[in-house]
Design brief:
Structural class: alpha/beta
Number of helices: 12
Order of helices and strands: HEHEHEHEHHEHEHEEEEHHHH
Largest sheet: 10 strands, mixed
Strand content: 5-15%
Shape: globular
Strand order of the largest sheet: 7-6-5-4-3-2-1-8-9-10
Radius of gyration: 20 Å
Distance between the termini: 11 Å
Length: about 350
């Protein structure tokens, strides 16, 4: 492992901070999986969402009841609520829920594929107190429409991005799922995003879950994965026009704090929680449901947050199999929890890929 002295010192400080945060577990981010309905059928969907899923949308009053139950225990200004799905904008009561959060002084945002984000909907969301929004755009038209499986997906997403670029009073970014099809045109695609006025761009590789499991067309070679990280480093060092970063997943060895602003730390269950569409209480929504710690229809959310989540806060159980004798486990602690299957086996290790 090639780490600079500065990186080693930073990683040791981060390790100490991580353990302190695990003990204190201040709730900072709450995801609400408000629907599993979706207007697309993306090849890489980790949730395997559908137009008519078996799990119905959670009633808004049930979610707000949880919010009211935690409000006495937190500073609402320090807990960011993110609406996700499925496709969150399929809910026609999203603004009503957002307004209720705004009245309770919780900042909130939305993750969307952009298909339904026209000027009228954006104005409605902003009037309801929306603070931020993330739009997915996975390359140029051919590549994006291929992975999204919808012929109008690219045109709708880029129209939404142009609309957001006209507003200066909202935080927003674009997230791209990088795969072998769009990888060769990343540099040209970056120029396109700059021309569209995108302020920040987050990239991530596809992990084998949901529809992506076993789909070789979506999986990077080790050489391509390193190439992606090198590309992000180059953007961050030489192009101030757009803030480029890699997703939070996985320890990256020599790339730590070079492809993102912070060292790796899987925050699931530490300061990040989620409420699934069926009421499940978990860490981030990418973690598989077998790691749910309770359910809002049977348990008090705050009691669960305070007294469970040991699996996510004490990662000693991950020191097994390929992690057992790994020299960087003290910094990584088993990678991101979303990379584990239902039996607790690590599906992919970014660090080991970079050592090949």
């Amino acid at each position: 492992m090639s780490l600079s002295l500065k990186q080693r010192i930073g990683l040791e400080l981060q390790r100490s901070l991580r353990h302190t945060e695990a003990q204190l577990h201040p709730l900072r981010t709450l995801f609400w999986e408000c629907t599993l309905r979706c207007n697309m059928s993306c090849r890489h969907c980790g949730s395997d969402c559908r137009v008519a899923p078996s799990v119905k949308d959670m009633p808004a009053e049930d979610f707000l009841r949880v919010i009211d139950s935690i409000t006495p225990h937190v500073d609402p200004h320090k807990v960011f609520v993110t609406f996700t799905g499925g496709e969150a904008l399929l809910r026609d009561d999203l603004e009503q829920v957002g307004l209720e959060l705004y009245r309770r002084e919780y900042p909130w945002g939305v993750v969307t594929n952009g298909f339904l984000l026209d000027e009228k909907r954006l104005e409605s969301l902003l009037a309801s107190g929306m603070h931020s929004i993330t739009v997915s755009l996975d390359g140029f038209e051919e590549e994006h429409n291929w992975i999204r499986r919808h012929p109008l997906s690219y045109s709708k997403a880029t129209a939404a991005i142009r609309l957001l670029a006209e507003h200066k009073d909202i935080l927003w970014d674009v997230v791209t799922c990088v795969n072998p099809r769009n990888y060769p045109t990343l540099r040209e695609f970056k120029e396109s995003l700059v021309s569209l006025g995108v302020p920040a761009w987050r990239l991530f590789s596809i992990f084998p879950m949901g529809r992506a499991a076993g789909n070789a067309e979506l999986q990077f070679s080790d050489e391509q994965f390193r190439g992606l990280l090198d590309f992000i480093c180059d953007c961050r060092e030489h192009d101030p026009r757009i803030a480029v970063s890699y997703a939070c997943e996985g320890f990256l060895g020599e790339y730590e704090c070079r492809v993102r602003n912070q060292f790796f730390h899987c925050r699931s269950g530490v300061d990040v929680a989620s409420i699934r569409c069926d009421g499940g209480i978990s860490g981030c929504t990418s973690v598989r449901s077998h790691m749910d710690q309770g359910n809002i229809y049977n348990d008090d959310f705050w009691d669960v947050w305070q007294n469970r989540f040991q699996t996510m806060r004490d990662r000693s159980w991950t020191k097994k199999e390929q992690c057992k004798d790994c020299i960087v486990w003290r910094y990584c602690e088993g990678s991101g929890l979303h990379l584990y299957d239902d039996e607790g086996h690590l599906l992919s290790c970014h660090y080991h890929r970079l050592q090949k």
